[in-house]
Amino acid sequence: MDFPDPDDLLNFRLVIMPDEGFYRHGRFVFGFKVGQGYPHDAPKVKCETQVYHPNIDLEGNVCLNILREDWKPVLTISSVIYGLQFLFLEPNPDDPLNKDAAEVLRQNRRLFEQNVAKSMRGGYVGSVFFERCLMK
């Protein structure tokens, strides 16, 4: 966890590094903004690492139900982190923000795996260039 402004504990960055699945050995940075309405309002979360993922669009918006309609005040920042980790282990093509990635995952799992690997190494998937985010 990183606090860009040490006097502002409501805005921070977090790194997720999956150790299995399609995104194994990737390094993904998320920005969290916890508003004054927390815990009644969900934190705002953006992926700062461009990623080829059905549930994260190219602007970093994240499709995670507990950040939207399923948010409850009993949920915590840890709940959100677990949800983000789960998205990397089990991408959900049925609730996509990146419809192209979702369609490839549904139609051709092997091609999806190749596209994820290509994007994490740094390179183009279609017309989109991805910066390297692979740690090994």
From TrEMBL:
EC numbers listed for it are: 2.3.2.34
Record's catalysed reaction(s): [E1 NEDD8-activating enzyme]-S-[NEDD8 protein]-yl-L-cysteine + [E2 NEDD8-conjugating enzyme]-L-cysteine = [E1 NEDD8-activating enzyme]-L-cysteine + [E2 NEDD8-conjugating enzyme]-S-[NEDD8-protein]-yl-L-cysteine
User: Pfam families this protein is in?
Assistant: UQ_con (PF00179)
The protein's GO terms of the molecular function aspect are: ATP binding; NEDD8 conjugating enzyme activity
Q: Which residues form the active site?
A: C63
Tell me which InterPro entries the record gives.
UBC, UBQ-conjugating_AS, UBQ-conjugating_enzyme/RWD
State which pathway it belongs to.
Answer: Protein modification; protein neddylation
Q: Which family does it belong to?
A: Belongs to the ubiquitin-conjugating enzyme family.
The name of this protein is E2 NEDD8-conjugating enzyme
Q: Which organism is it from?
A: Geodia barretti
